[in-house]
User: Fold Family 43 glycosylhydrolase from Paraflavisolibacter caeni.
Amino acid sequence: MKATNDALPLSEKRTAFSAGTIKALLNCFLLLFVLSLKAQKENPFGNALIPDMIADASIQEINGTFYCYATTDGYDQGLKTSGPPVVWKSKDFVHWSFSGFYFPSAVGHKYWAPSKAIAANGKYYIYPTVNGFMYPAVAGSPDGPFQLAKGVDSFSLPFTAATLLQSKDPKGPAGIDAEVFIDYDGLAYVFWQRRFAAKLNPDMVSVDTASIINIATPRKGYSEGPIFFKRKGIYYYLYTLGGDEKYQYAYGMSKTSPLGPFDFPKNDIISTTNYQHQVFGPGHGCVFNVPGTDDYYFAYLEFGRRSTNRQTYVNKLAFNEDGTIRPVDLTLSGVGALHPVARQKSIKVVHAKASSVRSDLIIKPNQDSLFQRTESFSSQFAFDAANGSRWMAAPEDTASWIVADLDKARNIKGSEVYFVRPTAGHAYVLESSANGTTWKPCGGHAEVVVQSPHTDKLNIKARYLRVRIGKGVPGVWEWHIYQ
Assistant:
């Protein structure tokens, strides 16, 4: 017969009771732990390349620095407008920054899809779409300032005579999304929307109209965002299909010339929605190579938060022995540093709090019912080293702030704050505290400055740092604190 607790001596009963109680408590704690994990806010956007909303990226390395020219998203007016032209730069491909505008006369206009900066004739040329038309611009440096390469450096609506394409149609020359490629012989080519391509004249600001072709592809329908590059004697032409969550890239190859003829492999789709990794609508971006290597990378925008609230991600591009491109293993995790760069040591933020937190945003699908995302805005997201997440204050919060708790008093040498919508500028006050109650200013600026990150060099000892946002969108993508 099986013994019961009632048949045990008192001392053994106490032991059995204690063991049972402990087991029950452990099960309770385990359940609470699991529930707390489920309650934690998640970041469905992964580690975007840039701590901002950008699309249509053109990325290249110039003299040891990575340059990213792109459409600035996140202005909440759909296709009616865009952010201003800024160029993000990085030495390691992880820490990015910009300061001011690289194309001053285009500020305030609808600025889309700039090309890479093309070195030619001892200058740099760039080919953005401004107010719906492609324009050539020129500068003495990839940093700018760029200006229109033809005529007066000024834009007017609907378009000016300085457009790259010319037309007698009163509606203007049709075409957006210029991609420019210079071959080994110095000849330049331009590719644009709807599968068009042509030679550029040696002046780099006009098109050889006799050479214009429309590339015949096996997949039909609207196409934009062309990508063109050459590797091991093979020319690659990439073109988009669809849009939103259905955005894709297909490609063709030529061993003859940049204008073809092109062969199109059977497996010609290299990027499409990846449900396993929750990557939706990988579209308009670029391919770039790290000079001196056979390392190629594919950058693409992702559907993200619908409309013009997109971010850009990068994955490695791989090739088969015959030169065909393998379908890209799309993830939102990024590729990490491409060059080693010594940096200050970061201080871990153990806890964060803010004046308020914006309510969760449910992002609805547009074409794909399997798309489901909810964006949360926890203050902890400002310290998670992932550019896809952010802290945002509640809309009614007119005196927003965020606090970093370093666990104990520490020597602090620097602070870098990546604000939300940085291209519109911010003013802020940086404060320090030993106890979280008494604060004193230690950085920031009263005037609105357009840059990211906003950097403060410090030489203080404190446990807490606080950023009080005076002007600009009340939110932070990332905040780095250094010792």
In short: The chain has a mean pLDDT of 92.
